[in-house]
Structures are given as C-alpha cells and as structure tokens.
Amino acid sequence: MTFSTLALVTALGLLGPVLALPTSWHIPAIVGPLAAGVLFGTTGFRVLDASEPTFAFLADIGFALVMFVAGTHVPVRDPAVRSALGAGALRAALVGVVATVVATGLAAAFGTGHAPLYAVLMASSSAAVVLPILDSASLSGTPILALTAQVAIADTVCVVALPLVINPSAAGRAALGALAVGAAALVVYLLLRLAEERGWQRRVHKVSEERRFAIELRVSLVGLFLLAAVATSMHVSVMLAGFAMGLAVAAVGEPRRVAKQLFAIEEGFFAPLFFVWLGARIDLRDLVSHPKFIVLGLALGIGAVVAHIVMRILGQSLPLGVLAAAQIGVPVAAVTVGEQLHLLVPGEAAAMILGALITIAGAALAAGPAGRIRQEGARQPAA
C-alpha cells in the first residue's frame, strides 16, 4: 500500500460526512465510504485492491475499533434502561423467534443453507445506528427506554451468536474462542473497576490531562489489541474482541475526554478506511450474474423490519419497531468474516449489505413519525 492509495482511501472517507450532513436524512456516516469503496473497488474501477495485506490489516484495526465504539454505545450503566430490561428482553426474544421462522423459509427458497445466519441478521439491532437517531430526534420516555433496552440486548446477543452460526461446523471452536475473549474482557473490566475504586484512574486522568499524555486512550487501545490477539489466536473475529472491550469500558464508565480521543481516531481514519475496504471487497457484479440475490437482499431487509414491527402486539408503536430493525454491525461482521473464510456464495455478501441498507433507510424514515407520536403524546391532557 502506498501513500497515494492511502490518500485516496482517506479522501473517499470524506463522502460519509457529506451524505450524513443533512440531519433530516438520518444517513449514517458509513454509507458514504462504503459506496465509495464499491465504486473504486472490485465492482467499479478496481483501483483499490482489498486483498493487499497492509490495506487488509489496517481494515482489521478499523473493524475492531468500530465494534469497540459500538460496544461503548450500549447503555449498561443507565439505571433507567436497566429498569426496562424485562420488556426489552421479551421483545428481543420474540423478534428472534419471528426472524428464525422467516430465515428458515429464505434459506430453503434460495438454497444457501444459511438459515441460522439469516435469523441472527434479521433479529439484530444496532445501538450505534439507533441511539444517535433517538438523540437527534430528542426522543425520550418509557417506550424509548424499552426500545433502548431491546436494541442493547439484541445487539449484544447477536454479536456473540454470529461466530457460532456463520460456520456451524466450527461452532465448538468458535464457542471456545468466544469464551476466551469474554474471559479476557472480564479481566479487563475488573482491572478498570479496581483502578476506579482505588482512585488510580482519577490520578492518571489528572496527569494525562495536564501533561497531554493520552494515557487512558493508550490503555484502552492496549486492552483492545490484547483482546484482538486472543480472538485471532483462537480463530475468532476481532469483531467480538472489539465489542467485548467496548462493553467492559461502558460498564466502568468511559471518561468524556477518552471518548473524544477515541472518536477522533476511529471516525477520523480507521472506520472510514474499514468501510472503504469493505466496499472495495464486495463484488456487486455478482448480483448481475446472480439476480436472485437481489431478491434475497430485499427479503432480508424487509424480513428484519417485519420481524420487529410484529412487536406491535406488545404495545410498541410501528415507527419504533422500524427503528429497532436498523442494523449495520452484525451484517458487516457477517460479510467480513464470511468473505475471509470463503463461506458465502457469490452475491450473498452483497445481498446482506443491501438488506442492512434497507433497514437503515426504514429507520431514517421512521424517525420523523416517531418524533411526532411523542409530541402528540406530550400535548394530550393528563387523565
């Protein structure tokens, strides 16, 4: 990889903020670099080679950081969210049941044999997508707390389940790897908790801020890369390492300064690079050669939305159900791992990304009606 290629990749990453700039569109910043990667990669001009070792390794770092930040977005310390865990867990479980039924039909119809994978995809939610939309729309109240809990549970469970279902023949090894990563993350959490209780974290924070050492950020990155080393040695994706590290940091409480530093590293360079790499790796020409996978992508996206809006029977409004269906981390992880292990048939990876984009589009459209429902509820007189 040369500096000219790196400059091109970094420039292509700027398309993310450009498309995400109109706040009313609610387009995640990942869509721009993903589309740019498709245009300049295997599908388009073929200027970018996703198989180049340095490019691929930098993308792995970006993937780990993306999942790290996604893990920190899970509100594990929020007592209000914890109080809504019961309703959220019930909805997440029922969504999983509906998604399993739909996935079984899709796998049989398309002959892929990937019913468990499709079920996890459609049952998943993305806290990294949903929570910013809720914040930008200023949504709050009991229904939003239940939605947040539902998304957090679905996000966590599906990230853990993905390595087990994407390659069933290696599920035992994947389970051991997941346990090893989880145990390592628990050790990291206990060490961070000890540092906080003993006051070490406050002293380090003060010195780091005064001397501009960024010690806490460095410690976070050491933990992340150690977990990634455990994951790769156990033949598990760095996806799980990043998400587990994010949950550990979120459980202790991430200092605001560290969050800003991490945001700068991840969103400023590594995340755009990863999504450009992912887009460059996907070959949308396979959809032309295998047009049935266009239908599969549409079915995965619509199936995910349907599985979530069924929660209307439990009192969740339709707009909030559509919001809950928004996904990106799990489909991206499925495509990344599936492509690396050569587990997907031509066109299947593109279909998964198409399905994820449909759920994001649905969430963007649902944000407005969800806000209006809240405003109308606020205007109603108390009984």
TrEMBL record:
It is a multi-pass membrane protein. Residues 16-361 form the Cation/H+ exchanger transmembrane domain. One of its GO terms (cellular component) is membrane. GO terms for molecular function: antiporter activity. It comes from the Bacteria. It is found in: Membrane. The chain crosses the membrane at residues 55-76, 88-110, 116-134, 146-166, 172-192, 262-280, 292-311, 349-370. GO terms for biological process: proton transmembrane transport; sodium ion transport. Keywords: Antiport, Ion transport, Membrane, Sodium, Sodium transport, Transmembrane, Transmembrane helix, Transport. PANTHER family: NAPA-TYPE SODIUM/HYDROGEN ANTIPORTER, SODIUM ION_PROTON EXCHANGER (EUROFUNG). Belongs to the monovalent cation:proton antiporter 2 (CPA2) transporter (TC 2.A.37) family. This is Cation:proton antiporter.
